[in-house]
Batch of 4 targets.
Target 1
Amino acid sequence: MSKKYMRRLDLVCPHRKPNPYKRMAKATQEHRVVPNKLERDFKKLTHFF
């Protein structure tokens, strides 16, 4: 069933729930950008060829 019809009929899929581990990782700021303390030069790749 598509989302449009599920919303129209107020149906909820019990199998699709938010991942609690992903939510906890966001809450604890485990995967965040850290400052460049070692002054490393990270170059961005401009093209693949």
Target 2
Amino acid sequence: MKTLFYLKSGKTKPTEPNSIVLRVRLAETGKPKVKGLGISCSRKDWNQEDQQVRRSNLQFKKHNAQLKFISEQIELIERERNVNAEDIDLIVEASIRGTSIQELENQSLLLSNIVKSYRDYMEDDPTYSPNYKRRLRSVSNLLDKFEQSVKYKISGNDLSRKATLIQSEIVKFFRSEGKKDSTAKNFLTNVNACIGHYNKLHNQEIKQFVKKDTKWAVTKRKIIALNTIELKALYKFVFEPVTEPDPEAPVLTPADKRNIKHFLFRCFCGMRIGDMNQTNINLNRLQKDSTTFTYHQDKGTKTATVYCINNYLFDIAESLNWKFPEFKNETALFSYSHNETQSVRKHLAYLLRDNMREIYHNTEKGQQYLNLCDVVTTHTARKTFAHLLYDLTKDVMLVRDQLGHTKVETTMRYLDFNMDGSSNLLKNVELGF
């Protein structure tokens, strides 16, 4: 008989509480995998030679059935291949729950369990922010609420067969709850991150949601640029702090200061937030008194070269000790974007409290006037650079090249040029010929 089970401690007295563990040497590592079984058993009650719990233990039948199940499952796998660590975890979990391996695998493939496993994994990772962890908990709760409403548990197999239909039902659910389509999109993005993590960890290919498969409610929001006065106010706020702080001012935390500096850096180069990383921004690419700054765009598929306005880029990067974020995935990028936007909005609201611009803006409730600080986004930095460069040069083609636009029409939209209005204006002009 193969010896798989041992008492956890061999030094206890015969009647003292002890527990049984499974020990299997893994071929892939050459090291033993030790796994607790949840079986309490003293030395007096354990028969090491027969690998069984003696009758003196009141639950000997239950415990021995569990041990037999584990040994049989390991033997079945070893007839075909070497046992790995995941096999051990799955077999032991099934033995404790009193279920079959197949049923347990089906349960692990439930979307709610995939999301919860990623949520639990993130909880133990100190590199992720508390906001991101809260967002994952919210995603898990929303998924549970959706599944309760449709009275159905979504599995990985369901996603392979009818992901588009499930996605459509999720969007309907969010709309019925009075939530914006952007909320549904963010939810799907986070669920996809959970699925991606599960696929990588378990070598699976569970299908993810494809957001373009849904016809979303379109709300064209105007991207806002900061003017020179507003940009200067934000710059001086972080680089020239007042000696006597205003007690009514919001607290400028280290995270807020870092976020605003990242935002300002992009205001002086037009970089998209997804391209802002330490690979692009370092002393090899940007030096003091440099006249140009070259960086990779669109995940390295092309490059952009921008003119340096004074030494603002270098000074901001230097003040950050050249520390810029590295986004592991789309969800991490979304999380950082959200935090940066909140930092900029909060402090702009204070800085411009006596001279706040109102923006005529498209919203899901129709067109209305909103305060500037309520419509600033991460992309505001890119548009601010476009306006700043045009104000300095009056050269649209230069702005186009600096932003990396293929079409000049895109640049014109960035600069808020109304081409239709210009054509109507010229239509009735009399030159006196």
Target 3
Amino acid sequence: MAAARTEGFPNVEALAAERAAALVAERGLTIVAEAYRAKARDAYDRWGARGKVAQLENAALAVGLAADRAAAPTSLDALYVASVVRASQVVSNEILLDDLIEKLMAVLMEQAGADRVVLFLARDGQLVAAAETHIDDDGQGLSVVSPSPEAAESAAPLSIVHAAFRDRAPVLLADARHDETFQNDVYLTSAQPRSVLALPLIKQNQVIGVAYLENRLTAGVFTPRQAAVLELLAAQAAISLENARLYSDLLAEHQQRQMAESALRSAQSDLEHAARLTTMGELTASIAHELGQPLTAIVGNANACLRWLSRAEPNLDRAMQSAQALVRDGKRASDVVSSIRGLSKNGVGEKVAMDLNTALQEVLDILAGECARRSIALEVSLTPEPLSVIADRVQLQQVFLNLILNAVQAMSEFAGRGVLKITSGIDGADARVEIEDNGPGVSSDRQAKIFDAFYTTKSGGLGLGLSLCRSIVEGHGGRLTLRDAQPSGAVFEAALPLV
């Protein structure tokens, strides 16, 4: 209507106002309907539709408006309606339940002239005092609190509140101290308010709550016409409260889902950690070998350095060479320990940009001794350029560790010389790592189930390794597949998006 008036379309403004009047009249908001009919008559008059103007003036619903067409839109009732409409817009803009309740309480006090408001909400068919607000003792500002369950019965006259809830209609007492209908209510007897109004909050024919308003000092503050207009605000409040409740429920559900997902991630992390520790336990001999070599070299080079320095004429050049070898072997031992520590730690790591080749090489350094111990030839062909991916280094290294160790164990149980081929490359937009063995391979019926949780081909296996591997790779936006190698064996391929 406002846009039609601004743009100079009185016909559209008139039709909109007339339909609005009919809509609110159906809901029993008589005062609001009168204001909209007056707007419709004025717009029809400006449009030049004299017949329509006469029809409205003669209609029973328009009695009293024809006498002064300019007075209705600017009457106190119309101005009050406009004020309540603005207030309802303020309420409708809130979606957070606590903020909505606070604004609603303030708006009700301002529009009705109350000095205290209690909001009751229906929960499981029962009315519960959700909030209470009152003017401070010094008359300045509002204080919104949530009544305790023990204080709910003394928060308002429950007989009046339940009557509004039951009858779905406002209950108005001009002076509660002289009212006989609810004279036995405990609250009215003790608190002795003067003006009392209980407004049901109705949405789609369902009462979702009751707003109780009172003025303890003055009688006749709330009038029937005022109560009728306040029903418009109550209707909008009911819609906003229900929307805010649904939003609050959605937030709570979202938070519960986040907590469940966090617990799931934590459980998966613990499971991955346990799997890594189990794998590391299987590599004890290999790890001891990998550490034994540099430690033996460290001792030898340290003794050599001491001998060169203890001579009658110290040979500083040879001592320097021994010291440099000492540093090199120490770094090698440190790298092995760091790799093992990284694979052994628990927790969810951070996904960062990393070189896939470097992560793979660190795993190969750990497993080189295991391959040598089992007489397996290791053929490695990695791309000269880095393969940059966004990943959790420890998780990816666990995938490579599991896949390579599975291949080593498969070849150890197969007659013939084992050959393990590790290659990396680029396939379109993906970085690709292939782990190929010449063992017995995996039969077609087992290939269909090989990545299923708790499916295992090992007598003492748990069936979690390959399931975790696929879960980790897919969690990085990649894929893990299995195919037959020629003439025998299996090829596991991990593909991850390049960055």
Target 4
Amino acid sequence: MATGLQMQSTLLKNGTLEVSLAQLDTPELAAHEVLVRVEASPINPSDLLFLYGLWLLLEALAIIMVLY
């Protein structure tokens, strides 16, 4: 059986985001299935805010904008 990498992320209780790569077995495919290999994928800019802990700042700005 072949293996592949999967990106996994865990948000720890202290607020730290842990990102890692896990090696997983590739599942057996049925006759009507195909396996697509992804070399790269873009990151949504709003996800970057979360990764760097800036989403709280964005949320605060949204609240301020609503108040005014």
